[in-house]
C-alpha cells in the first residue's frame, strides 16, 4: 500500500496523465530546473523558437516592409480572435496590444467617459497593485470627480461577492476586479458580480491575467463589458509579451480610446489631419505595434487551444488538489499555512503557502534544489501549476524539498529581512 506522500503516487499519476505529451512541446534546458513560476513567466514553446527565427530572418530580413501587408497588419486581430476562444468572446471582440497596465488605463478612462454623471469606481484590495495604480491615475484625470471604493479583504485570501456587490450603487460608473487573485488564487464569481453591477447600470471590467490559459472564462455568458489580460503567464507568450483587451460588441462604437494614435484611426493610411476612430475594436490601437513580440504569442495560444482549456483546467485541479493533499499530510505541521482556498471551484492554478520564513525558504529552494517558486510579501510562497508542462513528480519534488528545508533548517543561512525581491 502506498502512503499519500510516497513518490510512487506521483509516478502513477503521471502515467495516467492524458496531457503528458505536451511537456515535450516546450523547451527544456539541460540544466535541470523544476519550475513553478509559469504563472509569472510561462515556459518557451519549441514552436516559438522556429517562428522567432523565421520572423527575424525571413519576414524582417528578407521581406522587409512587404511583411506588413503579408501578415503584420493583421496580427493584433488574428491572435486576438484566437484568445477570444479562451475567454468566451466572439471574433472581433479581442485585440492584442500594449501591456496589461496600458490597456487597462485605456479601458478605465474610456468607460469613465462613457458613464457620464456617475462618479464611483469599485475595486478591492486584493487586486494587483499595478491595476490599483492605474485606477488611481484614471480617477485623478483633470476634471474628473471620481472616487475609488476599495473593498477590503479581512484574511487576504477571499472576498465574499456579497461585500463587493453591496458596495456597488447607482453612482458606480465601473467595477474593476481581477478574476483570479494574484496572491491567494481566489476565483471571483464573475457572473454574479457582473449581473449585480448591471442592475445598478455600472460597467464591469475583469482582469483575467491569472486565469487566461489556466481556466475556462466565459465573457459572453457572464455579459462582461470589458476585459484585459496578460499573455506572458499561462499563455506562454514570452517576457513582456503584449497584453489583450476585450470589448463587448455592443460597447465598441460608444467607447473612445484616450490615446488615439494613427493605428486606431478609421483610415490610417489616408494621413488626414483629424482623428476619426475605426469602426471596430481596432480603435483601441495606438501606434505601430511591437510586431515581433505580438507574433511570438501565437504558438503558446495554439498549444492551449489544441490541448483544450477544459482538459488543462481538469489537470490543474488535480495537481493543485494533489499539492494540498501533500500539504495536509506533511507540511501543515511544519509551519506552512494554506493561503489559497481549499475548494477547487474557487481556486485558480497556483497555491500560496504562508510561512514565517517564506522568503528564506524560497531562496533555499533555488540554491539547494534548483526549484523555482516565488515569494510575495508578507509571507507568501507561491507555487504556480502549469499543467501543460508540469508533472506530478515535479509537485512531489517541491513538497519533499520544502519539508527537508524546514526539518534541516537549511534556510537559516539566509538573512531574515527580505531583500528587494525581483519577479
Ligand atoms: C501580471 C499582471 C499584470 C501585469 O501588467 P503588466 O502591465 O504586463 O506589467 C497586470 N494585472 C494583473 C492582475 C496581473 O496579474
What's the Cα radius of gyration?
22 Å
What's the total count of β strands?
13
- What distance separates the N and C termini? 41 Å
The level of helicity is 25-40%
Shape: globular
SS class: alpha/beta
Taken in chain order, the helices and strands follow as HEHHHEHEHEHEHEEEHHHEEHEEEH
Mean pLDDT comes to: 96
Largest sheet: 7 strands, mixed
Ligand inventory: pyridoxal-5'-phosphate
Strand percent estimate: 5-15%
Q: Catalogue the unreliable spans.
A: none
Q: How many H/I helices?
A: 13
Strand line-up across the major sheet? 2-8-7-6-5-3-4
Fold blueprint:
Blueprint: H1 7-15, E1 34-35, H2 46-62, H3 66-70, H4 75-87, E2 94-97, H5 100-114, E3 120-124, H6 129-139, E4 147-151, H7 161-167, E5 172-178, H8 190-199, E6 203-207, E7 226-229, E8 243-247, H9 291-295, H10 298-307, H11 309-330, E9 337-338, E10 350-354, H12 358-369, E11 371-372, E12 374-376, E13 380-384, H13 392-407
Parallel strand pairs: 1-11, 3-4, 3-5, 5-6, 6-7
Antiparallel strand pairs: 2-8, 7-8, 9-10, 10-13, 12-13
Give an account of the 3D structure.
The chain has 423 residues and is an alpha/beta fold. It is 36% helix and 13% strand. It has 13 helices and 13 strands. The strands form three sheets. A seven-stranded mixed sheet has the order 2-8-7-6-5-3-4, with helices on both faces. A four-stranded antiparallel sheet has the order 9-10-13-12. It has a two-stranded parallel sheet with strand order 1-11. The radius of gyration is 22 Å and the shape is globular. The structure holds pyridoxal-5'-phosphate (PLP). Pyridoxal-5'-phosphate binds next to helix 5 and helix 6.
Amino acid at each position: 500500500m502506498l502512503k499519500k506522500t510516497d513518490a510512487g503516487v506521483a509516478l502513477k499519476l503521471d502515467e495516467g496523465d492524458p496531457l503528458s505529451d505536451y511537456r515535450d512541446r516546450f523547451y527544456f534546458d539541460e540544466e535541470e530546473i523544476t519550475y513553478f513560476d509559469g504563472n509569472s513567466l510561462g515556459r518557451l514553446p519549441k514552436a516559438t523558437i522556429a517562428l522567432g527565427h523565421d520572423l527575424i530572418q525571413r519576414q524582417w530580413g528578407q521581406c522587409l516592409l512587404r511583411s506588413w501587408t503579408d501578415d503584420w497588419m493583421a496580427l493584433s486581430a488574428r491572435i486576438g480572435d484566437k484568445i477570444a476562444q479562451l475567454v468566451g468572446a466572439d471574433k472581433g471582440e479581442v485585440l492584442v496590444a500594449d501591456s496589461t497596465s496600458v490597456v487597462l488605463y485605456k479601458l478605465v478612462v474610456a468607460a469613465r467617459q462613457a458613464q457620464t454623471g456617475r462618479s464611483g469606481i469599485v475595486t478591492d484590495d486584493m487586486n494587483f497593485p499595478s491595476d490599483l495604480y492605474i485606477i488611481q491615475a484614471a480617477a485623478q484625470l483633470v476634471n474628473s470627480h471620481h472616487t475609488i471604493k476599495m473593498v477590503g479583504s479581512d484574511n487576504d485570501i477571499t472576498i465574499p461577492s456579497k461585500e463587493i456587490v453591496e458596495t456597488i450603487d447607482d453612482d458606480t460608473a465601473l467595477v474593476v476586479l481581477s478574476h483570479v487573485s494574484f496572491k491567494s488564487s481566489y476565483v471571483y464569481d464573475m457572473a454574479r458580480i457582473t449581473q449585480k453591477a448591471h442592475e445598478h447600470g455600472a460597467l464591469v471590467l475583469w482582469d483575467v491575467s491569472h486565469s487566461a490559459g489556466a481556466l475556462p472564462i466565459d465573457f459572453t455568458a457572464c455579459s462582461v463589458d470589458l476585459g484585459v489580460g496578460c499573455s506572458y503567464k499561462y499563455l506562454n507568450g514570452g517576457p513582456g509579451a503584449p497584453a489583450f483587451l476585450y470589448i463587448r460588441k455592443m460597447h465598441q462604437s460608444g467607447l473612445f480610446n484616450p490615446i488615439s494614435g494613427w493605428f486606431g484611426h478609421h483610415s490610417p493610411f489616408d494621413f488626414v489631419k483629424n482623428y476619426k476612430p475605426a469602426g471596430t475594436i481596432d480603435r483601441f490601437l495606438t501606434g505601430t505595434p511591437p510586431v515581433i513580440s505580438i507574433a511570438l504569442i501565437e504558438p503558446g495560444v495554439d498549444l492551449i487551444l489544441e490541448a483544450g482549456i477544459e482538459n488543462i483546467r481538469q489537470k490543474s485541479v488535480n495537481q493543485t488538489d494533489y499539492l494540498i493533499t501533500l500539504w495536509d499530510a506533511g507540511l501543515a505541521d511544519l509551519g506552512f499555512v494554506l493561503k489559497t482556498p481549499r475548494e477547487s471551484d474557487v481556486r485558480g492554478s497556483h497555491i500560496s503557502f504562508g510561512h514565517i520564513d517564506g522568503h528564506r525558504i524560497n531562496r533555499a529552494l533555488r540554491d539547494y534544489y534548483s526549484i523555482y517558486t516565488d515569494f510575495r510579501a508578507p509571507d507568501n510562497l507561491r507555487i504556480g501549476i502549469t499543467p501543460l508542462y508540469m508533472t506530478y513528480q515535479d509537485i512531489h519534488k517541491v513538497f519533499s524539498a520544502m519539508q527537508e528545508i524546514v526539518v534541516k533548517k537549511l534556510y537559516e543561512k539566509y538573512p531574515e529581512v527580505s531583500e528587494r525581491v525581483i519577479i
